[in-house]
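BUG: 3D viewer hangs when loading the predicted structure for this chain

Environment: internal workstation, default settings.
Expected: structure renders.
Actual: progress bar stalls at 90%.

Input used:
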Amino acid sequence: MNASRMELVVVMPVYDEEDVIVPVVNDWISVLTRLNMAFQIRLYNDGSNDRTSERTREAFGTDFRVVLIEKENSGHGPTILRGYRESGDAEWVFQADSDDEMPASPFEEMWRRRTGADFLIGNRLARTAPWSRKVVTWVSRLIVWLLFGSRIRDVNSPYRLMRNSVFKGLFRSMPEDTFAPNLIVSGFVSKNRLRVEEVEVPFRSRRTGSGSIRKLKLFKALKETIAYRVSGRMPVSGAK
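Structure tokens produced before the viewer hung:
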């Protein structure tokens, strides 16, 4: 089914998640089905080296609500940006990771609160987060706040619901290889003072694989965000 006909498109990057991909996608199907909407879950397999593709095809090969897109490895950021751009004319686009760190169930509250909002984000509740993750979170927040304003607490949360018509111009304005597009998205929201809703979402450390932004990669993300901010490429919001 064409993404343009969907009420909601879920963009889910996938990399070496053979152990969790099937239960994670099943959880999302269950939640979205209860909400009685037309949806599509688009899985972007970012060059996995394990049996992620095989497991996905075996479980969802005949389910039109799940689409598997195979691609060469380019990293988490460029993968989700491609997904954003390929969301067609769906009314809403949602990004969720496939690593089972943030559950599907809180999305029900987020969906109910979407009326009157342009951007809804899940704030990660992680009492036992490692110091490295805390550093990433705090430094990212500081840079985004300094550059764009302080309207969002968890600026790099991979749990975000966006009114597609508002963000299309932004998605097109970012280079395809943008390393951390979600930081720029959060900056766009703050700079344009869009209507924001925040939902608390439980968070647990990943059981497989490794995180996408760590140590020196953080500096790459921040440098890129600063460069984008001063470039003048950020469009004016399409929000009414």
